[in-house]
Design goal:
It is a single chain. This protein is of the alpha+beta class. The protein is built from seven helices and ten strands. The protein has helices spanning 5-8, 57-65, 87-91, 112-121, 148-168, 180-183, 196-199, and strands spanning 48-54, 70-78, 98-105, 130-131, 134-135, 141-145, 176-179, 187-188, 220-221, 226-227. A six-stranded mixed β-sheet has the order 7-6-1-3-2-8. A two-stranded antiparallel sheet has the order 4-5. Helix 4 (112-121) runs parallel beside helix 5 (148-168). It is globular and about 45 Å long. It starts with a helix and ends with a strand. It is an enzyme of class 1 (oxidoreductase). InterPro entries: Met_Sox_Rdtase_MsrA_dom, Met_Sox_Rdtase_MsrA_sf, MsrA_MetSO_reductase. This is Peptide methionine sulfoxide reductase MsrA. It catalyses: L-methionyl-[protein] + [thioredoxin]-disulfide + H2O = L-methionyl-(S)-S-oxide-[protein] + [thioredoxin]-dithiol; [thioredoxin]-disulfide + L-methionine + H2O = L-methionine (S)-S-oxide + [thioredoxin]-dithiol. Keywords: Oxidoreductase.
Length: 229
């Protein structure tokens, strides 16, 4: 059952993951096809970065490049063990990686809270190793933070959204939350995956959102006791 349902529903162990390679086996564009900004930096001073996973990364990336205040987006593989993986390797569930999206943003133009609201509402974070019919550990929900502020915001909004999901009859949130340092290198995906839905407007782009609003702005922001606007 190497490519069967058991592998796709169980995280691969480090010593059984594909080893990968020491160098990138493909090219990556220097500039974002829509925003024109550098895919791998450098970005303007003050730019913050967060990494997230919401199932298939094509639609997830489009959601965030359309968000005002986002400097650039890129798709890649993160959270597993294999060095410089390919798309085919990641889709085998033998790398341990998620299909991840890098989001570089200007916090003066878009708040982290707004990005997290979009994150929660744009997929179903209760499904474990899948999103809809997309089955595999690479499709799991994940949020990899790069600062304590981001961690606190993730944890606070997760609790807020869980309460809303409970009222709507959904199960427990299964989103993997950890630091980007712990999740490991963000390995950029192949050229043709970057801004895929701009290059292929009729491409695969399922909507797995629960339809449940994340009531940020109603409760307390970041657990600080300050009401959000």
């Amino acid at each position: 059952m190497i490519f069967g349902s058991r592998l796709k529903s169980t995280m691969v162990e480090r010593d059984k993951a594909l080893p990968g390679r020491e160098s990138r086996p493909f090219t990556v564009p220097t500039a974002h096809a829509v925003l024109g900004t550098p895919l791998e930096g450098p970005w303007p001073e003050g730019t913050q970065v967060v990494y997230l996973a919401m199932g298939c990364f094509w639609g997830a990336e489009k959601t965030f490049w359309q968000t005002p205040g986002v400097v650039t987006t890129a798709v890649g593989y993160q959270g597993g063990y294999t060095k410089n993986p390919t798309y085919e390797e990641t889709c085998s569930s033998q790398t341990g990686h998620t299909e991840a999206v890098l989001v570089a943003f200007d916090p003066a133009k878009v708040s982290l809270t707004d990005l997290l609201k979009t994150f929660w509402e744009s997929h179903d974070p209760t499904q474990g190793f899948r999103q809809g019919n997309d089955l595999g550990t690479q499709y799991r929900s994940a949020f990899y933070w790069t600062s304590d502020e981001q961690r606190e915001a993730f944890e606070s909004t997760r609790a807020t959204y869980q309460a809303a999901l409970d009222k709507a009859g959904f199960g427990a949130i299964t989103t993997e939350g950890r630091s980007a340092q712990d999740a490991g290198t963000f390995w950029y995906a192949e050229d043709y995956h970057q801004q895929y839905l701009y290059k292929n407007p009729n491409g695969y782009c399922p909507d797995h959102g629960t339809g449940v609003a994340c009531p940020i702005g109603v409760g307390v922001l970041y657990g600080t006791g300050v009401k959000a606007d």
